[in-house]
Amino acid sequence: MKIKILSVAKSNLKEISSYITINNSADIADNVIAEIKKLIASLKELPNRGSYVKELEEAGNDRYRQLHYKPYRIIYTVDDGKGIVFIHTIIDGRRDLNTVLKQIFIHNKLN
After folding, report:
1. Count of CB atoms situated within 10 Å of the CB of 109
2. Which tens digit of pLDDT belongs to each residue from 34-71?
3. What domains lie within the chain, and their CATH numbers?
4. What are the CA-CA distances from residue 60 to residues 20, 54, 63 (Å)?
5. Euclidean distance between CA atoms 67 and 36, whole angstroms
6. How many Å apart are CA 71 and CA 57, to the nearest integer?
7. Spatial separation of the C-alpha atoms in residues 72 and 75, rounded to whole Å
8. Residue 53 burial by CB count (10 A; 0-12/13-18/19+): exposed, middle or buried?
9. How confident is the model at residue 111, as a pLDDT?
10. Are 12 and 87 in contact (CB under 8 A)?
11. Per-residue pLDDT tens over the stretch 79-102
């Protein structure tokens, strides 16, 4: 499988890095981002191993899966036909997912 990190997820990584750098250190931020990227890369071998996103599954959408690098949720879909894993967003698990998804929807509609 190939990995495609979408623009929202790329922005999420930058925001996470900035936040950790400001509140802790650049070294810690670099380490967290490296670990998240390593977890994402592991999807090449086992793309369907993540759990379904409960909030979306309850709404009838079982396409989205997630991996956790606490407290972050890496939300993705797998397109077996194209052989691609799409990373949609990486969010702090303490945030309200519904609000985040609305922001992503608006962003995707504008672009």
Report:
1. 7
2. 999 999 999 999 999 999 988 777 777 788 999 999 89
3. 2-110 (3.30.2310.20)
4. 35, 10, 9
5. 10
6. 20
7. 10
8. buried
9. 45
10. no
11. 999 999 999 999 987 777 777 666
Do the Cβ atoms of 91 and 72 come closer than 8 Å?
A: yes
Length of the chain equals 111
Alpha carbon distance 33, 20 (integer Å): 10
According to the 3-state scheme, what is the secondary structure of the chain? CEEEECHHHHHHHHHHHHHHHHHCCHHHHHHHHHHHHHHHHHHHCCCCCCEECHHHHCCCCCCCEEEEECCEEEEEEEECCCCEEEEEEEEECCCCHHHHHHHHHHHHHHC
Position of tokens 């909030």?
Answer: 55
